[in-house]
Write a structure and sequence with these properties.
alpha+beta; seven-stranded antiparallel beta sheet
Length: 956
């Protein structure tokens, strides 16, 4: 394995940028700036005066996987490197989100003037020093079972704090929920006088408890929602009945919200009807261990939810809060929603996973005086509760039609336009790539790096020992997004890169995550101009064409060139809506005016600091092109296209063919290989001659949708199991990928359910609709005309035990009866000389088929990279990699792709499942894990740059 890894890095994966020194892994400069071509976007003039120079976009530097825990002060020759301790994890159900936040912070603050050390708090509150590579894991479960061997554990939290006191200058806690936002970690740090970002422990405790915070807000003169505290008392039914009556609610059917008092991210939040249902759901929260105190509060019928980030720009302990532009959270209930979802609320899934049930509007679609009230109220609340640095404050706007007369009069939040109610305070807001923090910050001129570094530097102001540091004052930093700055000569011939994502397949949301991640990583390179682009769905086209396969259909497709802030959305539908909204004159004028107001307020506070270099994102507009215009522009600019469109025209050779016709270089395989791999039958036929070489294919039976609808399911079922010689089958679209439409069928009843979904053109099959338990099955759009049936391959379940007998670590259990395990592996290189990365074993958390979320969404799914020796030996793994390389080169792959297969744990032989020529490139995808497993490790920015360079080299 070592020899192949070395060859891979030397022959294929070496970046053309500076090589990475092994001894100083953390101090590599990573800056990059996007200079959008002058004709890419129509410009909107900025009439408000402020500095617009930019902190610059500084990304995390690559590090070795070897964990180095420093015991003394690290410094350059001037002693000015700020050492930041990034702490994630924690005991709450938000541990996965915390890991996502830590990954994003690491990506965007690290540089040659700031060194990040990573730490992880296990759910049992044991602390570990971890390598930055582990932060890119999909979930904590990816490495929980091997923490003792991979990380440096501390015997106690006291030992951990003692280590921090000598190893970091300031701590940045990104633990969401308990121990992170309830004052736990803050109190620990305060006792040892360790500086940290964020609010002090006493104020955290007061703000984190929703019941206590509501009482404090009421005392401070804010309107609050009537609520009742449940703590498991036998007398509570009578008391709650009285509360229902007092608030004019029907004791049997009155609609309320039930939620834990001390849990974040909408965990445990549910709707209840009447006293009995409320107590049942409250006691369920208590019994599940989410919290032992539960709030029952009135459901704000007719209300519209919002959230706003507040940034402190004051000096030291002199608080000067500025609320950014609030975001309206608009909830939609579609006809296809599961009946259990009828009471739509902003729950955990809608907050963190792509869904069309939620749309975000920044600024809100509220009257302007209401937006003013929200901003003023949030800033006042921030100040009166003693919050520090930054926070996110949630609430509701109730228009007059909501009839909110039951809310207290003569308090802050009342106006003729309606009532503003603040309900939740988030001390450590989520910091994923598209989180509210970055959405709102980008609207007022901050890049990811700029806002995070501003928060860190502001926190340093409270500690005299840290005032010498100026982490954003490097004179070499230059503006990336603003075209208003002429301080730097534009003599560099920067390479242009168009990152395209979106489309209209069921994989379009994953495509958005992939494209956003690629864009954010590539823009770190100084020599690139990187422009994000949305391939609009066909429904957006005026022509109404619905075929991707006809020439006229392709030509009718449109592409939007996107400004920074518009990209930061959860769904492609949101991005498209944001494009249309941005160019609507009235809405655009309002946004521009509010943006100027906020930027002026921020500038008033930040202008006093030399380390603040100004805003680095200009107020650009999106621009719409036909796909042919877009390709011609790429040709004129000499751009390389980075394809991140999963499925459809992005993966079937269509987009590749259009780019080839104009001589525009692009990432990934060419037309023929793309067409072959998109067709699973064609893939099998192309590989079937390799059986003697250890590459096996699965028997297949192809049926048309039309034929499936004609015959009784029972007859089809008997015919299939007889022909394929298997009692359990797997069905999948013939020309789609990434788990879309893939299901396990165990009987004719399952087949009937699947055929009915095809007939009804359902966008998804609800969870557990088939005889064997499973998650939601996303269906292809449009419905596939050809389906493949093949034997279902049984693999042995991989189980993680909570603790080993020693009580110190987690065990991985695998019976190994069948000897087959499912793997996914990336291949990278030039045509004919593709190399295999280290395979990952994929672990399914629910059902037998990996869901789209488990494959690509951070915080879900488990991947084991490299495969544990207890499952597959090094020798078998090396044979597996050779077989994977044989597959890649036989299919004439180039650039990069991902191959899914089953591997025999003893022989290393592989049974091919499918090949994805545009694999997922989300922040926590297995490709990142596998690149990090190389020697030396390849961090995301270098990995994606390598893929881009391979595309450019192919065009030479």
């Amino acid at each position: 394995m070592a020899s192949s890894s070395a060859a891979l890095n030397s022959a294929v994966l070496r970046s053309k940028t500076d090589t990475l020194p092994h001894e100083t892994p953390f101090f590599i400069r990573r800056t990059g700036f996007l200079e959008v071509p002058s004709n890419a976007f129509p410009k909107r003039s900025l009439k408000c005066g402020r500095r617009f120079r930019g902190v610059g976009v500084v990304k995390s530097s690559a590090t070795t996987t070897e964990l180095k825990v420093e015991s003394g002060r690290a410094a350059d020759e001037e002693g000015r490197i700020l050492r930041v301790g990034l702490i994630c994890g924690g005991p709450s159900a938000e541990r996965g989100i915390s890991l996502n936040s830590a990954r994003s912070v690491l990506d965007h603050i690290q540089g040659d003037d700031l060194h990040v050390s990573c730490y992880y708090i296990h759910y049992d509150l044991k602390a570990y020093a971890i390598s930055s590579a582990q932060v890119y894991s999909n979930t904590p479960a990816d490495f929980d079972f091997k923490l003792e061997s991979l990380a440096q554990g501390f015997d106690s939290l006291s030992d951990f704090v003692e280590h921090l006191a000598t190893s970091v200058d300031i701590v940045f806690p990104v633990i969401h929920g308990r121990f992170g936002e309830d004052g736990g970690i803050q109190e620990l740090l305060e006792k040892s006088n360790i500086p940290f970002v964020g609010t002090q422990s006493n104020e955290c405790r007061r703000a984190f408890d929703k019941y206590g915070a509501s009482a404090e807000l009421d005392k401070q003169g804010f309107i609050t929602v009537p609520s009742f505290l449940v703590q498991g008392s036998e007398l509570e039914e009578t008391e709650l009945s009285l509360w229902f009556t007092k608030n004019h609610l029907d004791v049997k059917e009155g609609k309320v919200v039930v939620k834990p008092t001390r849990a974040g991210s909408s965990i445990g939040v549910t709707v209840a009807y009447g006293v009995a249902d409320s107590l049942t759901k409250a006691n369920a929260i208590i019994s599940e261990g989410i919290d032992d105190r539960v709030i029952v509060e009135m459901f704000l019928e007719g209300g519209r939810e919002f959230t706003t980030i507040v940034l402190d720009v004051g000096s030291g302990f002199d608080c000067q809060p500025v609320a950014l532009l609030p975001t309206e959270v608009e909830l939609h209930c579609h006809s296809s929603v599961d009946s259990s979802e009828k009471d739509i609320i902003f729950n955990y899934r809608r907050k963190y996973l792509p869904t069309q049930q939620v749309a975000y509007h920044t600024p809100p679609q509220f009257p302007e005086d209401v937006i003013k009230n929200i901003r003023e109220g949030a800033s006042l609340l921030f100040q009166r509760l003693g919050l520090r640095d930054f926070a996110r404050i949630d609430g509701w706007f109730l228009p007059p039609s909501a009839h909110a007369d039951y809310l207290t009069d003569n308090k802050f939040g009342r106006s003729d336009s309606g009532t503003v109610v603040f309900t939740d305070i988030n001390l450590i807001s989520g910091m994923e790539q598209t989180s509210f923090l970055f959405q709102q910050a980008s609207k007022v001129g901050f890049s990811h790096s700029n806002i995070l570094r501003t928060v860190v530097q502001h926190a340093c102001l409270r500690f005299p020992s840290l005032r010498q540091y100026s982490v954003v004052s490097s004179p070499s930093l230059r503006t990336k997004y603003s075209n208003t700055n002429n301080a730097f000569p534009k003599h560099h011939d920067l390479r242009k890169v168009f990152v395209i994502f979106g489309g209209d397949t069921s994989e379009r949301q994953v495509s958005l995550m992939s494209g956003t991640n690629v864009w954010l990583n590539l823009q770190a390179s100084n020599d690139l101009k990187v422009i994000p682009c949305l391939l609009a769905p066909r429904t957006e086209n005026l022509s109404g064409m619905d075929s991707d396969t006809t020439k006229s259909g392709i030509n009718s497709r449109t592409v939007w060139s996107l400004p920074y802030s518009v990209v930061l959305r959860h769904t492609t539908e949101e991005v498209l809506d944001a494009c249309i909204e941005a160019i609507e004159p009235v809405r655009a004028a309002l946004t521009s005016r509010l943006r100027c107001q906020v930027m002026d307020e921020l500038t008033e506070g930040l202008k006093r600091y030399d380390w603040f270099r100004g805003f680095d994102i200009s107020d650009d507009l999106p621009k719409r092109y036909s796909i042919n215009q877009w390709i011609k522009q790429a040709k004129e600019l000499g751009a390389t296209v980075f394809i991140a469109v999963h499925g459809g025209i992005g993966e079937d050779g269509t987009l590749q063919s259009l780019l080839d016709a104009e001589g525009v270089p692009y990432t990934g395989p060419g037309v023929i290989a793309s067409k072959t791999c998109m067709d699973k039958v064609a893939t099998s036929l192309a590989l079937q001659h390799l059986a003697d070489d250890g590459v096996l294919t699965i028997a297949k039976d192809v049926r048309s949708k039309e034929d499936l609808l004609k015959l009784p399911p029972l007859d089809i079922w008997h015919e299939l199991i007889s022909k394929l010689r298997s009692e359990t089958l797997c069905v999948k679209p013939a020309r789609d990928g990434c788990s879309t439409g893939v299901a396990r069928l165990c009987c004719d009843g399952d087949l009937a359910v699947y055929i009915k979904a095809l007939e009804s053109c359902l966008p998804r099959i609800p969870s557990n609709s088939l005889s064997k338990s499973h998650g939601v099955i996303e269906m292809p759009i449009p419905t596939p005309e050809l389906l493949i049936f093949e034997p279902f391959i049984e693999t042995d379940e991989i189980i993680f035990s909570p603790q080993s007998s020693s009580g110190n670590t987690h065990d991985l259990l695998w019976k190994g009866n069948s000897r087959w395990v499912e793997i996914t592996v990336g291949v990278v290189g030039k045509r004919g000389s593709m190399s295999s990365l280290t395979p990952s074993i994929t672990v399914k958390e629910t059902g037998d088929i990996l869901s789209l979320e488990e494959k690509f969404q951070g915080g879900t799914g488990i991947n084991l990279t490299p495969p544990p020796l207890s499952i597959i030996s090094d020798a078998a793994l090396e044979k597996c990699k050779k077989h994977i390389q044989l597959i890649a080169n036989t299919l004439q792959l180039e650039g990069f792709s991902r191959i899914d297969a089953f591997v025999n744990a003893d022989s290393g032989n592989v049974l091919i499942i499918e090949v994805n020529t545009v694999p997922g490139m989300t922040p926590s995808t297995v490709l990142i894990h596998q690149a990090l497993a190389e020697k030396p490790p390849m961090y995301p920015h270098r990995f994606f740059r390598t893929l881009l360079d391979l595309a450019s080299e192919r065009s030479l």
